Amino acid sequence: MVVIAFAAGSGAGWHGVLPGAPVGVALFAALAVAAQSVIWSYYGAVDAAKIAEEVVDPERTLPRVFLLGIAIVTALYLLLSERLRWRSRRRERSSSFCRSRSP
Fold it and tell me: What string of DSSP letters covers 69-81?
């Protein structure tokens, strides 16, 4: 989905908060450098797979455990994100209400 958005999107309407942020090909170079640390942080998945010797029916159990873990983390992230969006909208409404009530 992200790759399609980068490929098909023009970026019109995007206003970044970093004035010196890379654009174009330099953006992909910066993403490649950042991906190194992300991949390194996920290197623990290799160690998690080592428990296959200790699990009954690892071909079935490990994929379930990994996918369930990913699903739980994704759900928590989405819930937190929606909560923050809700709070932001609520704060905007209350501040606009206060401004409209000012003499």
Answer: HHHHHHHHHHHHH
